[in-house]
Specification:
The protein is an alpha/beta fold. It is 43% helix and 18% strand. The protein starts with a strand and ends with a helix.
Length: 181
């Protein structure tokens, strides 16, 4: 799967146990893949091992993030992934590219949650005060809880989302008020 100009994520497999499929694609010290990367204007390419083990495949697809656990809903093609807070931004990737490609590669809609986040409130709980399109913008940036937004500087929030400063200021005020009560 590929987002042109951004990143590509490829799953490879080998029918011969003696051949490491990732190593064969990447080459010694990246010699094979560097030519392709250069040709694509230094576009990032992640090469992962394919497996029929769905849990392992989804975990690999989210690399470089390390997954703690996941819950798969095969009927609705959704998966809830639990990560340590410091792994969330790796799973999401710049502009959400990593999680989008992992979703395309696996065929599952991936929802990311932080491990051990206590006394936090999911953003969707604020739907009576914050419009859904604004909540969706934050979710695209991997920010799905009140604390995940409050932990980030306002200028960084403006960079990560497609929202105006005034809108972000209003959201921050709503979220801060919730924790001050």
């Amino acid at each position: 799967m590929r987002i042109p100009g951004e990143k590509a994520k490829v799953a490879v497999d080998s029918y011969d146990d003696r051949i490491d499929p990732v190593g064969a694609c990447v080459g010694m010290k990246g010699s094979r893949i560097h030519g392709i990367v250069r040709e694509l204007g230094n576009e990032n390419i992640d090469v992962i091992n394919y497996t029929n083990n769905l849990q392992l495949f989804i975990s690999r697809a989210l690399s470089p993030a390390k997954v703690n656990s996941l819950k798969i809903d095969e009927e609705n093609k959704r998966v809830e992934v639990i990560l340590n807070p410091e792994e969330v931004s790796k799973a999401i990737g710049k502009g959400g590219t990593n999680i989008r490609l992992a979703g395309k590669l696996t065929g599952y809609e991936i929802d990311v949650f932080r491990e051990g986040v206590e006394e936090d409130i999911e953003l969707k709980e604020f739907s009576d005060e914050i419009e859904q399109w604004i909540i969706d913008e934050f979710k695209k940036a991997g920010l799905d809880t009140a604390k995940s937004i409050l932990e980030i500087d306002k200028t960084e929030l403006i960079k990560r989302t497609d929202l105006e400063e005034e809108t972000i200021q209003e959201v921050l005020a709503i979220l801060k008020a919730e924790f001050e009560e």
